[in-house]
Amino acid sequence: MRQILSHEEMGDQKPSQFLRHLNGFAPDIPDDFLSTIWASRLPPQIQAILVGQTEGSLDSASHLTNRICEVVPQPTKAST
Questions:
Q1: pTM for this structure?
Q2: Alpha-carbon gap, residue 10 to 18, rounded angstroms
Q3: Rounded to whole angstroms, how far apart are CA atoms 44 and 49?
Q4: Which domain holds residue 65?
Q5: Considering only CA atoms, which of 48, 55, 47, 57 is closest in space to residue 10?
Q6: pLDDT digits 0-9 by tens, 57-79
Q7: For the chain, what is the domain count?
Q8: Nearest 5°: phi and psi at 10?
Q9: Contact predicate 15/62, CB 8 Å
Q10: Would residue 79 count as lying in a domain?
Q11: What pLDDT digit, counting tens, does each position of 15-48 carry?
């Protein structure tokens, strides 16, 4: 549980893959708690879109988020 709360980041994974990854750490975690952690690790522009999505399952929200990520430009990180 501590690993989920403090260290896990989405990285290059699709949102649905990241959700499955988080769920693998603690499969018995309630969906509402998992949803809060998962959504908080998504990019801010995706969080802003997802906040209006209140209906449906967590799984359907993750697939919707995958589709959003395909069309919303992701911020690039500058490398030195």
A1: 0.76
A2: 6
A3: 9
A4: 2-71
A5: 47
A6: 888 888 888 998 888 766 665 55
A7: 1
A8: -70, -40
A9: yes
A10: no
A11: 999 999 888 877 888 888 888 888 888 888 888 8
**In-domain check, residue 42:** yes
How far is the C-alpha of 80 from the C-alpha of 70, rounded, in Å?
A: 27
Secondary structure, 3-state, 13-47: CCHHHHHHHHHHHCCCCCHHHHHHHHHHCCCHHHH
Q: Which residues contact 29 (CB under 8 A, 6 or more apart)?
A: 1, 4, 23
| Rounded-to-integer distance, Cα 39 and Cα 32, Å | 10
Does residue 39 fall inside a structural domain?
yes
Domain-embedded: residue 78: no
Output the six-digit token pair for 72.
Answer: 């919303």
